[in-house]
Design goal:
four-stranded antiparallel sheet
Amino acid sequence: TMAKRDREEDAGSDDAARAAAEADGQHEEGAGALTKSTSAQNRRHAIARLALGRLPSSEMYEKSYMHRDWVTHIVVTPSDFVITASRDGQLKFWKKLQTGIEFIKHFKAHLAPFSGMAASPDGGLLGTASSDKGLKVFDVLSFDMINWIKLDFTPGVCEWVSGSQAARAVLAVADATAPEIRLFDATSAEGALINTIKVHSAPVVEMKLNVPRDAVISIDARGVIEYWRPDGEPGLPKSVDFRFKTDTDLYELAKNRARPTS
């Protein structure tokens, strides 16, 4: 009986020891979590103090790069100009310097958000399109508006598709609600329509000129990529290295139902 009682007391002592150890472990875990939480709070407070310390505190500023609404488009030209456009139709010209940029001029360019903005390959011209159905052309070097074309459709993205040696400055403008791309003589007084490109089955969301290849690449909302000639003539550009798109990966976006954003 005494031996049995001794065994029960030993077992009770072991259970008590285990319970105490578990309690100590839980206490250590809680203390560790508390330490981690305090450390994270200290880091957040330090970052907040650093951010607050760097806020401007002067009544007047030498320069400001801020638009009053979201910046939707940024273009940097080979002529060292930076042009920014915001959702409220504001357009700003900046000159790129060795240690920053210098503000040049501001335009209230459109009454609605920009849908497209592009600089010519030599950086001399800028084209802007907006859902207000306006197409405007600017001389970048003199930072002045030189043409305003009123459209009978809602424009999407735009791109200059003529090189610096071309006889005409041709601006390609996509239709925001249809698959057509229209080519305009953008610097003529009447902004004449030159041609209409019909290679897509959905509205075009991106368009770029490849100058060395003399080819335009456009992508529509379904992810289909097309190559076409800047003069608007049918068929693939002669400079490309393939005859059939099935020999390339140009259908991969469409196969994966991926809509490109840039």
